[in-house]
């Protein structure tokens, strides 16, 4: 299994399928985009499926989430999902997406074996969406959410980042909308993982602020310490339930002690933490004649060195070299 020196066991694998994206969220990347990975550096579909197979059959991984960049722009996505769903033991398969194109692919993804989807949506106002993402595609995200529901993906979670002065007044409105549509809304604190290094601790909207705003309109009861477990979101029952809302307070209430994540970047590097400054190259082994057992050993070694925490609370914190979109959020 993937254990580290603090006794944490990673059973949840995040696979980045591409570093490219069709939006330009201000908290993620600059308007002009980034220097994308070169095609030969990206793992092929076969290589990705092999890595997932090693993770599931040799290393105890149980949950696999495909992300990016924008995973829906990876041409082989449906085939990758289908092949991962055929693995024994079968991992739970989920996707984090901005929703663009989900209208066309939700049905095929469900049929291929995708279990769940998280769709990122920060605002209900098309003009605010345009400001935040620099693209006029709000209606596509809503259509993608509708298609996910029609395809039977369940639960559907919605990820929201609040940015001060842009959409930070929308928290209660977003929650009411999510409750009306039976989506589980999760607010994510803005993290210092943007390519432009524009994050400022005193500029971010904190979990406490979000909860205060929500409580102005809803009764929130904590679901209890035990429910959070290794899940990053603290969850609250809204108005007695069954609706819920989550807050992922990575900055102000980090959950590193319970972290069960391991990450694979689109170019075949294993990362033991979103905030790690080191990565372990597994692509070289994958493209040599290394067997599965050898790759599994390299993966174990990469996880063994995981640090106790993200270091965000340290004034000397240094952002990782790669932004969130290249690591896989
Ligand atoms: N493109 C897909 C999407 O937006 O859902 C998947 C990749 S994106 C990096 C994954 C999640 O990370 C999204 O919910 C996004 O809002 C979030 N995210 C991106 N940059 C962030 C940041 N600096 N702080 C907090 N969350 C961030
Ligand atoms: Fe793209 Fe997701 Fe980053 Fe927005 S948050 S720019 S949708 S990768």
TrEMBL record:
Catalytic activity field: GTP + AH2 + S-adenosyl-L-methionine = (8S)-3',8-cyclo-7,8-dihydroguanosine 5'-triphosphate + 5'-deoxyadenosine + L-methionine + A + H(+)
SMART domains in the cross-refs: Elp3 (SM00729)
Biological pathway: Cofactor biosynthesis; molybdopterin biosynthesis
Recorded superkingdom: Bacteria
InterPro entries associated with the record: Aldolase_TIM, Elp3/MiaA/NifB-like_rSAM, MoaA, MoaA-like, MoaA_NifB_PqqE_Fe-S-bd_CS, MoaA_twitch, MoCo_biosynth_MoaA/MoaC, rSAM
Domain called Radical SAM core: residue spans: 5-223
Bound cofactor: record note: Binds 2 [4Fe-4S] clusters. Binds 1 [4Fe-4S] cluster coordinated with 3 cysteines and an exchangeable S-adenosyl-L-methionine and 1 [4Fe-4S] cluster coordinated with 3 cysteines and the GTP-derived substrate.
Enzyme class: lyase
HAMAP family for this protein: MoaA_B
Function: Catalyzes the cyclization of GTP to (8S)-3',8-cyclo-7,8-dihydroguanosine 5'-triphosphate.
Family named by the database record: Belongs to the radical SAM superfamily. MoaA family.
Record-given protein name: GTP 3',8-cyclase
Organism of provenance: Actinacidiphila acidipaludis
Name of the coding gene: moaA
């Amino acid at each position: 299994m993937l254990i580290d020196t603090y006794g944490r066991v990673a059973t949840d694998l995040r696979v980045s399928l591409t570093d490219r994206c069709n939006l330009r969220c201000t908290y993620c990347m600059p308007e002009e985009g980034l220097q994308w990975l070169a095609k030969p550096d990206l793992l092929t579909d076969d290589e990705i499926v092999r890595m997932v197979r090693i993770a599931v059959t040799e290393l105890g991984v149980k949950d696999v989430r495909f992300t990016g960049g924008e995973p829906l722009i990876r041409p082989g996505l449906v085939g990758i999902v289908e092949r991962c769903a055929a693995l024994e033991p079968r991992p739970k398969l989920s996707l984090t997406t901005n929703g663009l194109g989900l209208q066309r692919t939700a049905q095929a993804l469900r049929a291929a074996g995708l279990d769940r989807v998280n769709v990122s949506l920060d605002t209900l106002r098309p003009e605010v969406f345009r400001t935040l993402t620099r693209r006029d595609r709000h209606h596509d995200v809503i259509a993608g959410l509708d298609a996910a529901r029609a395809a039977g993906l369940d639960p559907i979670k919605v990820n929201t980042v609040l940015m001060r002065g842009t959409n930070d007044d929308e928290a209660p409105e977003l929650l009411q909308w999510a409750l009306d549509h039976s989506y589980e809304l999760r607010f994510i604190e803005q993290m210092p993982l943007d390519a432009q290094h524009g994050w400022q601790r005193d500029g971010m909207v904190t979990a406490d602020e979000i909860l205060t705003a929500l409580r102005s309109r809803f009764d929130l009861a904590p679901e209890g310490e035990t429910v959070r477990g290794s899940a990053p979101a603290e969850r609250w029952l809204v108005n007695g339930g069954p609706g819920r809302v989550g807050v992922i307070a990575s900055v102000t209430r980090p959950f590193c002690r319970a972290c069960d994540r391991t990450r694979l970047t689109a170019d075949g590097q294993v990362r033991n933490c979103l905030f790690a400054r080191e990565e372990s190259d597994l692509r070289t082994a994958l493209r040599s004649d290394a067997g599965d057992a050898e790759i599994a050993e390299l993966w174990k070694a990469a996880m063994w060195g995981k640090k106790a925490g993200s270091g965000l609370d340290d004034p000397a914190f240094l952002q990782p070299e790669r932004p969130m979109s290249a690591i896989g959020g």
